[in-house]
Specification:
With 88 residues, the chain is mostly helical. It has a single domain, classed as Flavinator of succinate dehydrogenase (DNA polymerase, domain 1), CATH 1.10.150.250. Helix 1 runs antiparallel to helix 2.
Length: 88
C-alpha cells in the first residue's frame, strides 16, 4: 500500500475508536504529528492502533506504564497531550 493510502486508512482508524475521548486523544495525535513521521513511526502507530483504547489512554496520561515495545520518542510525544483540541 502506498504511503498516502496507508495514512488515510490510519487517520480513519485513529478518529473512529468508539469513544469521543479516545477519538480526541488518538485522532488528535495523528493529525498533529503524522506529516513528520518516518516509515518506522507509521509502523509504530499502526501497531499502537491494535491495542485497546483504555490501555492507550492510560499510557498517554501516565496512569499505567507503557509496554517496552512502545517506549521511545513516539510514546513521549503521545504523552505530551499538547495536540488535543477541545471541540467548541
Amino acid at each position: 500500500m502506498d504511503r498516502p493510502s496507508r495514512l488515510k486508512r490510519l487517520r480513519f482508524r485513529a478518529w473512529h475508536r468508539g469513544t469521543r475521548e479516545a477519538d480526541l486523544l488518538i485522532g488528535g495525535f495523528f493529525d498533529f504529528h503524522h506529516e513528520s513521521w518516518t516509515d518506522e513511526d507509521v509502523d509504530w502507530f499502526e501497531r499502537l492502533l491494535e491495542e485497546q483504547d483504555v490501555d492507550i489512554m492510560a499510557w498517554a496520561i501516565g496512569t499505567a506504564a507503557s509496554p517496552a515495545r512502545f517506549d521511545g520518542a513516539m510514546m513521549a510525544r503521545l504523552q505530551r497531550l499538547d495536540y488535543i483540541k477541545h471541540p467548541e
